[in-house]
Amino acid sequence: DGGITQSPKYLFRKEGQNVTLSCEQNLNHDAMYWYRQDPGQGLRLIYYSQIVNDFQKGDIAEGYSVSREKKESFPLTVTSAQKNPTAFYLCASSVGIGETQYFGPGTRLLVL
Amino acid sequence: GQSLEQPSEVTAVEGAIVQINCTYQTSGFYGLSWYQQHDGGAPTFLSYNALDGLEETGRFSSFLSRSDSYGYLLLQELQMKDSASYFCAVGASSGNTGKLIFGQGTTLQVKP
To answer: How far apart are CA A99 and CA B24, in angstroms?
Structure first.
């Protein structure tokens, strides 16, 4: 079955630690996205990528980094510079930029 | 700036009809999408309008008026499982790239 997978489902981060969230898709989509969702809030765009080896900052990129070395994969690193990382992180992909997005199941990040 | 507005909460009874409105202010508009998100889950795609008019998909319909920068999601024959958050999202251009901009979401509570 085609889809988007994210791992892990839950992730715990210690102070000063970098953590990486995985996102993989087998939909052959060119565009991929990372969003952050806080309780009771909408989705805020962190980074997006239109094509392999290219990515753009979204609205809240500070404290995060990404890579897009393969079409199928778009990992997100939450760095120690992100002072309030506790949130629900959602990865999505679409055929092309701005088109209908399909979401993975999400990763909940908690700070110890 | 670019923004979307939708009501924060809507309550309705089982079997009823409910309409969730969305007004937007964006540049380079190219489509209005609707997503459903159950508590703790990932958003799932419901419908997309690129042109003015009504799109129907089973119990759900979505409407767009580009001249009014307005759209709505209509849910008929409400069921308890329809209790969820509903997000409108607009495809918009930013510089020379496009992306989806999400509203803050409307929490729908369906009562028996």
So the answer is: 17
A77 contact partners, CB below 8 Å, separation of at least 6: A18, A19, A20, A21, A64, A65, A66
Which residues in chain A have Cβ-Cβ distances shorter than 8 Å to B44?
103
Beta bridge partners of B79: none
- Which residues of B are less than 8 Å from A90 in CB distance? 42-43
DSSP annotation string for A36-71: EE-TT--EEEEEEEEETTEEEE-SS-TTEEE--SBT
C-beta of residue A103 within 8 angstroms of C-beta of residue B36: no
Interface size between A and B, measured as CB pairs under 8 A: 50
CA distances B42 to A20, A54, A108, A111, B69, Å, are 19, 25, 11, 21, 27
pLDDT tens-place values along chain B, 112 residues long: 678 999 999 999 999 999 999 999 887 777 899 999 999 899 999 999 989 999 998 999 999 999 999 999 999 999 999 999 999 998 876 554 567 888 999 999 999 9
Residue B10, Cβ density class (10 Å: 0-12 exposed, 13-18 middle, ≥19 buried): middle
B-chain residues near A47 (CB < 8 A): none
3-class secondary-structure state, position B80: helix
